[in-house]
Amino acid sequence: MRIEQLEYIAAVTRLGSLRRAAEELRLSQPALSETVRNLERELGVDLLERKRSGARMSAEGRELLPHIIDVLDAVDRLRGAAGEQHRISRMVRVGTVNAATVPLLIPSVQAFRAAHPMTQVEVVGAQQTEIHRALLEGGFDLGLVNHLDGDDLPADFDSTELLRGRPVLCLRPDSPLASLPAVTVDDVLNGPEPVIAMRSGYVMHRYAHRLLRGRTPDFSFSTDGAEMGKLMVAEGLGATLLPDFSVVGDPLERSGAIVYRPISDDATEVLLMLQRRRAESVPRAAQDLYEVFVRRARELGYTPS
């Protein structure tokens, strides 16, 4: 068994494709496939499920993944001790639904980078279900996801509540609704601009349907995540429902391109959760970034629970 075989498996798991892993590793796809096959024959298990849509960890592979990560982390520590600074730590990968990007995510990554200048951080926008799947399969180390207060938390993850906020309507300052201190459900339904909805799979999509109780506004657009939603609002395409912590302090909000108004008679709370797969051994760099997120939440005046 060779270390690069384990690194190749980790790359295929992260990228979900033998082809993309071969491109990143600068190998031919047949050479990569044969290397993985050799490791599978040596271990006596099929580590990957190969389909036309890509490659993903098999059930047996997922059971072995913590041990593979342990070995790679041990190799990283050995190389670091030997003075190979570029191998001090593996890349830390964070999946996010693009919530609280400005107040939490960016400052946390900046602080982590200052303390770990040789460690790469990869931030990937995805839906909650995609983040959970990647956490289980080892594609992400950490996940930032929204939950509505009262939702059941998945048992497969350690979950830490970082922020708690309220849904708001994000709109342009020249909207007639911006002159109101708060907006009602009828304002959302019958307002002067269409609603920009989050696609199915996002918590705010579920919240909108719960808030409107099955009534149908003029959903002219749907999009992925808060960042694109805010840009569409700033360009005058409509208004969108977002957690307040995804709007307050955003550059578009600070510049006056967007504003927000609370929803009257709605006590819903949105929780931003930091999640990771339950494991006996956690890579040191991932643990350090986890702690940076928690410290940043405290700096914002919130006590994580």
Fraction of residues in helices? 40-55%
Q: What is the alpha-carbon Rg in Å?
A: 22 Å
Name the helix and strand elements from N-terminus to C-terminus, one letter apiece.
HHHEEHEHEHEEEHEHEHEHEEH
- Secondary structure class reads alpha/beta
Please report the total strand number as a whole number.
12
Largest sheet properties: 5 strands, mixed
Mean pLDDT: 87
Topology overview:
Blueprint (H helix, E strand, L loop, with lengths): L2 H13 L2 H8 L3 H15 L4 E4 L2 E4 L1 H23 L10 E5 L4 H15 L5 E5 L2 H10 L4 E7 L8 E9 L1 E5 L13 H6 L4 E4 L4 H10 L6 E5 L1 H10 L5 E4 L7 H4 L4 E4 L7 E8 L6 H16 L6
Parallel strand pairs: 3-4, 3-5, 8-9
Antiparallel strand pairs: 1-2, 5-12, 6-12, 7-10, 7-11
Helix pairs in contact: 1-2, 1-3, 1-4, 2-3, 5-11
Describe the structure.
This protein has 305 residues and is α/β, with parallel strands linked by helices. The chain has a five-stranded mixed sheet, with helices on both faces. Strands 10-7-11 form a three-stranded antiparallel sheet, with helices on one face. The chain has a two-stranded antiparallel ribbon with strand order 1-2. Strand 1 and strand 2 form a beta hairpin. The radius of gyration is 22 Å and the shape is elongated. The relative contact order is 0.15.
Brief descriptors of the model:
305 residues, alpha/beta, 5-stranded mixed β-sheet, 11 helices
